[in-house]
Amino acid sequence: xxxxxxxxxxxxxxxxxxxxxxxxxxxxxxxxxxxxxxxxxxxxxxxxxxxxxxxxxxxxxxxxxxxxxxxxxxxxxxxxxxxxxxxxxxxxxxxxxxxxxxxxxxxxxxxxxxxxxxxxxxxxxxxxxxxxxxxxxxxxxxxxxxxxxxxxxxxxxxxxxxxxxxxxxxxxxxxxxxxxxxxxxxxxxxxxxxxxxxxxxxxxxxxxxxxxxxxxxxxxxxxxxxxxxxxxxxxxxxx
Length: 239
Known about the structure:
Layout: E1 3-7, E2 19-22, H1 24-32, E3 36-38, H2 44-67, H3 75-117, H4 124-142, H5 147-162, H6 166-173, H7 176-189, H8 199-206, H9 215-219, H10 228-238
Antiparallel strand pairs: 1-2, 1-3
Helix pairs in contact: 2-3, 4-5, 4-6, 4-7, 5-8
Keywords: Coiled coil
Coiled coil: 44-106
């Protein structure tokens, strides 16, 4: 059975702060390793089930009409009944999608508000730690003698940041621009821009696993479409 996992960091080809569908083994591995958290999308599955049920009912009606052998069911009558069945299906599917659109908009608004109000207490000690880490890492980057050393230094910086607390990471976010600029300029000087960048460091410092703070990121992943089958059928009929 597929499970939804919100990634707290990059995992393979999947980017941080996205939702993936994973099998039980993969989901368990991601959650236990701290790389992800299992999530739901509220009533999304309920709406998907309703959309699939509507499509199934339409297919049954269509099959019954197509299979009708009564002489009174001329081609013209069949065409009328098929158009009627499709129109009914279309009306129900569009109404369901509109209902989901409103529901999704409400869910996202609530999530954005939660993220906007989310707080992580940053103590003076956290700020002091962040400042020292930023200074130390910046000096190491500046002193890297070659491209290989720079790549190793940036990798070590990523690992260092991963071990900071959420509060320390939040404090470091205010100083990360200087470190990233130093990495960029040093990489350019050492002709290493193709193999060295600050994306991993940026990802590490953004890995603050407070779900109130991340509520907006999760809300952005809520699927927009529930009537997938209807849309596919509509596209086919237009051809």
